[in-house]
Design brief:
By secondary structure, this protein is mainly α. The chain contains eight helices and four strands; from the N terminus they run E-E-H-H-H-E-E-H-H-H-H-H.
Length: 282
């Protein structure tokens, strides 16, 4: 009598099923298919907010940065934030409610991103003031960040500010502000207009105050220079003050710019960093 050998058991036991999982062949745990559309919907909602913020983020969201690079960065940031944002979101089953939630996420991203962009516009505003004071308001070049014609001094300050943002790691604070935006403005509906308006007013006020603060040395220089020219014109009426004033104002303005540009950019970075840290709750 020949005994056939026993075949080894393929299934070594049964595991307790988990929520969202079902038991497959031989006790293997398999994820339920209905759970995947929910995760995909949450990711799309997160990507709507994060993608809008990345497109407006200082340093990374500039026009000369390739779109594929910005989209890739937004994709990976949204991928990391999705597990944190999923418990905060209740995915609706109706199409209208889902579209409303998507639009609200885009509006939240736009409101925060535009407010941060207003602080970046302080450099261009300060550049206009400096150029008018130095007599270089007519020297216009194309702004690489916006594609519009602006004074060359303003473009110089903007490009220098972007470089310092990246070298001082302020873009890391921007990414942290994206994460904390779910605490400040949680998903679930349209944002409160009072909160959005208050944030916008604070951003505009701080932007203009920062522009005047950055350009303050040139305001003082222009005032003293014009007073001196007026006194000189009264003392020497036969002197052609106009032909003397333009080269002297440009030369004096360049010397002042060389002396105070470090302080100007330090003030800008401190104000931008403080505004971003307010968004992070710091």
């Amino acid at each position: 009598m020949i005994l056939s050998p026993h075949r080894p058991a393929l299934c070594m036991g049964h595991a307790r099923p988990r929520p969202g999982w079902r038991e497959g062949p031989c006790g293997a745990m398999q994820i339920q298919i209905p759970l995947l559309p929910e995760i995909s919907t949450v990711f799309v909602l997160v990507f709507a907010r994060i993608g809008t913020l990345v497109m407006l983020m200082p340093g990374i969201g500039e026009r000369f940065i390739m779109s594929r690079g910005r989209l890739s960065l937004a994709f990976f940031i949204a991928l990391m934030i999705t597990p944190m944002a999923r418990p905060l979101m209740t995915v609706p089953t109706e199409t209208g409610a889902l579209v409303t939630l998507l639009v609200s996420e885009i509006l939240i991203g736009l409101s925060i991103g535009i407010c941060v962009r207003m602080l970046m516009a302080a450099l261009q505003t300060a550049g206009v003031i400096v150029a008018q004071t130095m007599g270089l308001g007519f020297a216009m070049t194309v702004d690489p960040t916006g594609g519009l014609q602006n004074p060359s001094i303003g473009n110089l300050l903007t490009m220098l500010g972007i470089t310092l943002i990246l070298t001082s790691d302020l873009h890391h604070v921007s990414i942290a502000a994206m994460h904390e935006s779910y605490r400040l403005l949680p998903p679930g509906g349209l944002p409160e207009m009072s909160d959005v308006v208050q944030l916008a007013i604070r951003a505009v006020t701080q932007s203009f105050a920062l522009a005047v603060q950055i350009a303050a040395p040139f305001v003082v220089f222009g005032l003293l220079f014009n007073i001196g020219l007026g006194v000189l014109a009264r003392m020497m009426p036969q002197l052609q003050v106009f032909f003397l004033a333009i080269p002297a104002s440009i030369l004096g303005g360049m010397l002042v710019l060389l002396a105070v540009i470090g302080v100007m950019m330090s003030v800008f970075l401190d104000n931008l960093g403080g505004f971003l840290r307010q968004l992070t709750g710091g």
